[in-house]
From TrEMBL, chains A, B:
This is Iron-containing alcohol dehydrogenase. One of its GO terms (cellular component) is cytosol. Keywords: Oxidoreductase. Gene3D superfamilies: 3.40.50.1970, Dehydroquinate synthase-like - alpha domain. Residues 187-355 form the Fe-containing alcohol dehydrogenase-like C-terminal domain. It comes from Turicibacter bilis. Residues 9-175 form the Alcohol dehydrogenase iron-type/glycerol dehydrogenase GldA domain. The keyword Oxidoreductase applies.
Length: 385, 385
């Protein structure tokens, strides 16, 4: 097991109808900015329930944070924070709103060019002050409700950032708030969670037995409940299991002390930036091909996953790995998520532009061992057509 | 899944030889009381390494905290804290030292009779101030390094307490510090962790799929490595896996959102208080008999554990439950832990005194459904002879 630090101070308030607890969770004397995305939190009444739960406070609203939140939008919120002397941010939404709110929390205290915070991870990681923030979660996928990072789409790319200061102070996680999501967003959440776990698991053995088995438990659960929670959107227990797995899949727990990959995410981010493909769908496109190309360095963990999660135990190692990749692809497809670039109208002629974007963002040595050069990324993309 | 709150702000610093990080983890301006138990932290140099890592600070020491820490000893430390105006507590040891330090942290700010904090859990839970504390862990078992509770032996019994204020600010968890432990203490740690998990798992199904599978992962790991880490005490990876499972087994994670039992602990505490039997050994005595007596209410989870952890899948349900109990008992015995009261010289003639102690401490409706009355406890004890 590798050495590690583990720290996660976010308080999770999990369960149905717990809005009334917001009043004591949000500081009484705070001037609060409530942030949200499009109209769904209005349409389904979530925003009204949040506002009603926070009486006798000065509250401003900032709506319109997009999926894959845009830097320009977030900087407008920073202007509001500064002009109005906001001292608490409350995100109401999914990963994009929460990620965006984290960026606002940091950028509000940063005097330089806000793009620095995306351009140079070390600048962001060393910031010493941020606005406190919290979240009311309406979509299970990113784990942003219980972690220290986010991803922002900006003129210099779709890029990540992180700092302990942006752990939400609390997150209200009510699975029933996700009942009204469109089917494709639930499917995206299942795939996003599945690949988050894989980025921390599908590397090489490192004697992290708790970490491996906890990851395998989430993967098994997602396979068990993924299709079922899409088909039965108001089944509380199915959805609660998806939501809790999504939170646990990216809160630092399963990745502590073991190698991590994240190449699928890095390549996927370019697909979203260039072609607007949903984040989760980019992961479903890239990961199966990446496993195929990297099957030698990932061999032991691929076989372990096959045996422990998929019960694939017969055939030669190559045959089993083929089965493992195909079974995983079929799982994504069974959720209604297409797994080929060509399904999204992307052909071989676009690969150079994707590689150029990777190069621009210094994504030239990806994967758990830095072995995924641009040439390897080309093969992965060619295999994903 | 039940509704729940999850909160755990302890920072874990995990790995070998990280003492040099203590200097920035412990506040620079703090007057520190370093607390420890018997001579082993002196004998093996751990105390010296801690003190050397904290230069230019005012540091006092308080040694002699016993296994099953005694209230009278802890109140002497409270006197030191008050007289010397200590403002940071650093526990160096295992669960007893850390539990004791937590009690000191709370009692130092409590003006009433210190026994109140054990007599009435609600008094302790509502305290608003405590000294900050941290830990350097030398024994894996109790999870105290990453939770909010402790157990103290007092004139009114061996009793638990808890408050969010006593989460350690950080815990330095170096598996190599446990290499020098006597074999029986390592075995105790394996059993203690195993039963901590079971108290949060072996109840009834509650749609906590992440929780169940994470518990099952710890149980499998303990069965895999338990004997091996006793036999190979300086194998870092084996011990690191034990240590991390012990921390994860009682930090709130696996018990969030699912029913919990704790009857084995409650009855076990009386055996320690009356007869001085090691805590873990009391658990190994009580749990198999408790499962046998409570096999109807625990049936589904017993069978799930049998199938998923022990691979016991054939025979009638009663046969399988018999096999499951016997296999678990044999696992404890394989670690050198005896599982019968009679192994410790306790006979049927002592049962009345154990029941009287349970009654005195209001332990008359134990278990996940409060079904374990004194009459049921009698049967459990009779079955444990």
């Amino acid at each position: 097991m590798n050495q590690f630090n583990f720290y996660n101070p976010t308080k999770i308030i999990f369960g149905r109808d717990r809005f009334n607890e917001l009043d004591h969770l949000v500081p009484k004397d705070a001037k609060v900015l409530v942030l949200y995305g499009g109209g769904s939190v209005k349409k389904f009444g979530t925003l009204d329930r949040v506002l009603a739960a926070l009486p006798n406070r000065e509250i401003l609203e900032f709506g319109g944070i997009e999926a894959n939140p845009r830097y320009e939008t977030l900087m407008k919120a920073v202007d509001v924070v500064r002009a109005e002397k906001i001292d608490f941010l409350l995100a109401v939404g999914g990963g994009s709103v929460i990620d965006g709110t984290k960026f606002i929390a940091l950028a509000s205290y940063y005097d330089g060019d806000g793009l620095d915070l995306l351009r140079d991870r070390s600048i962001t990681a060393n910031l010493k002050q941020a606005l406190p923030l919290a979240a009311v979660l309406t979509l299970a996928a990113t784990g942003s409700e219980m972690n220290r990072g986010g991803v922002v789409s900006s003129p210099i790319g779709k890029l990540g950032f992180g700092n302990d200061l942006v752990f939400p102070k609390f997150s209200l996680v009510d699975p029933s708030l996700t009942f009204t999501l469109p089917e494709t967003q639930v499917a995206n959440g299942v795939v996003d969670t599945f690949v988050h776990v894989m980025e921390q698991y599908m590397t090489y053995p490192a004697e992290g037995r708790f970490q491996d088995r906890t990851s395998e438990g989430i993967l098994k659960t997602l396979i068990e409940i993924g299709r079922a929670t899409i088909d039965n959107p108001t089944d509380y227990d199915l959805r609660a299991n998806l939501v809790w797995c999504a939170t646990m899949g990216l809160n630092g727990l399963i990745g502590a002390g073991v190698p991590q990959d994240w190449a699928t995410h890095r390549i996927g981010h370019e697909l979203t930036a260039l072609f607007g493909i949903d984040h989760a769908k980019t992961l479903a496109i890239i990961m199966p091909s990446l496993w195929n190309i990297m099957r030698d360095t990932k061999r032991e963990k691929l076989l372990q996953y096959g045996e422990r999660v998929l019960n694939i135990t017969t055939g030669s190692e190559e045959d089993r790995i083929d089965q493992i990749i195909e079974t995983t692809r079929q799982f994504f497809e069974s959720l209604g998520i297409k797994t080929r670039l060509s399904d999204y109208g992307i052909g071989a002629d676009q690969i150079d532009s994707i590689l150029a974007a990777l190069e621009l963002h210094n994504m030239t040595a990806l994967g758990e061992r830095g072995e995924i050069t641009l040439e390897i990324s080309r093969k992965i993309l060619e295999g994903a057509i």
